[in-house]
Amino acid sequence: MKSCSVLPENYIQRTVIDLEKDKKAFWFVNILSLVIAALMVAIGVWAVPLDLEPDADNFVLELLLPLIVLLAGIFAYIVLHEAVHGVFMYAFSRVRPRFGFKLVFAYAGSEAYFDKIRYIVIALAPVVFWGMVLLIIDLFCKGIWFWVFYIIQVCNVGGAAGDLYVTAKILRMPKDILIQDTGTQMTVFAPVQEKREEGS
Question: Which distant-in-sequence residues (6+ apart) come within 8 Å of 55 by Cβ?
């Protein structure tokens, strides 16, 4: 079964994954995000110690400008993260995705139904793509600029905790499922299991 814009007649809803309403999953994902971020920061401090004593004569270049770039970079990353979700949603379905903001997070959603493999690609595409881009950038950065892009990388990996959680749940489901992701919740559909005739 490939991705489609209309749910096949023999498919019915099996479960819903809603990280906003499911408080247990909500807290698990947020704690996982904090743990990932803490571990990455610890590794970063060990690899490239952070010097926060800029020269007073070069305050703007050594601290203020990097801070501005960091804040702008985090905002841009949030938008670009969802853009990658949307690009893959459209590529797999040819159904235009929709984007929005809700409370403190952005989202990309689609009315299409995605098969298991394609949905996992959609879920993991941003963390993998931007992870590689930021890694390459950091390889050429030193000092405070390393940390500017490394913190964005921390946001990339730690912020993908929800995508990782959903991927882990989808991986344990049957291969013939279809998933519709509206941006705030994922609805899983599966084919109706026909009863076997007696004696067959």
Answer: 62
Specify whether the CB–CB gap between 143 and 51 falls below 8 A: yes
Q: Residues 79-102: pLDDT tens digits?
A: 999 999 999 999 999 999 999 887
Q: Are 118 and 85 spatial neighbours (Cβ–Cβ below 8 Å)?
A: no
pTM as predicted: 0.87
Q: Nearest to residue 193, comparing CAs of 61, 55, 16, 10?
A: 10
Closest CA to 178 of 158, 192, 164: 192
Residue 26 identity (one-letter amino acid): F
Domain residue limits, the chain: 11-49+59-191
Give residue for tokens 């881009």.
133
Residue 57: exposure state from Cβ atoms within 10 A (0-12, 13-18, ≥19): exposed
37-47 pLDDT, tens digit each: 999 999 999 98
Contact 87, 166 (CB under 8 A): no
Going by C-beta distance under 8 Å and a sequence separation of 6 or more, which residues neighbour residue 48? Answer: 142, 143, 146, 147, 150
Total number of residues shown for the chain:
200
